[in-house]
Give the backbone structure.
Amino acid sequence: MTTKTFKTPAIHCHHCAMTIKAELSDLVGVESVLVNVEEKTTEVTFDQPATESDVRSLLDEIGYPAEA
Ligand SMILES: [Cu+2]
């Protein structure tokens, strides 16, 4: 199990947080998603078959690309 916090600067409101949570939760292997609107971060806990690169790809796809 891996927990990683991604900087997702495109987040601007709670609607963004809901979208990210809904989309990432659909990824098989994602255990939990915590979005901090003020900090513009997304903390994701995941395990196989999900990988960090899957999480990043999905964030790109939905318009919230992760920095660094
Ligand atoms: Cu928003």
